[in-house]
């Protein structure tokens, strides 16, 4: 929560007053596709990303209501980025070739393009827009079926198992 959500509060609190004074600036919120839809096993991470998405949306509405059209906002929501943070995360093997982890450079390029063109939101890959749309119109059980089909319902389980094994190995090594 401190990094994924609260950091955005504090950064915005530091810079927004001057932006409001001069009606100029750009607030970029780095969230995640897991701030738009969730999966099992990483509830804390999803909660922090949902929190920052909600903060971003509320702030964007506040700026529009205040008619501060010189202050732009961009919400960045990438799918799994290949940084090693969630190494082991796996979707359904038949789907994986179509949704591999994203390269960090690609995510930066997409975010920069969105910022420079004043795009309010960027989801990478674009397929994430469809998942978000489907989640908003389908009943919950249908979304569960979609997640199961994609293998997204348990995609974090291999990652969690690896972390648990690493923790157990470290505890055994340290005699705990």
From TrEMBL:
Record-linked PROSITE patterns: ADH_SHORT
Gene Ontology molecular function, alphabetical: oxidoreductase activity, acting on the CH-OH group of donors, NAD or NADP as acceptor
CC per GO annotation: lipid droplet
Keyword field: Oxidoreductase
Gene3D superfamilies xrefs: NAD(P)-binding Rossmann-like Domain
Top-level taxon in the UniProt lineage: Eukaryota
Record-level GO BP terms: retinol metabolic process
Family: Belongs to the short-chain dehydrogenases/reductases (SDR) family.
Annotated PANTHER family: PKSB, RETINOL DEHYDROGENASE 10
Record's protein name: Retinol dehydrogenase 10
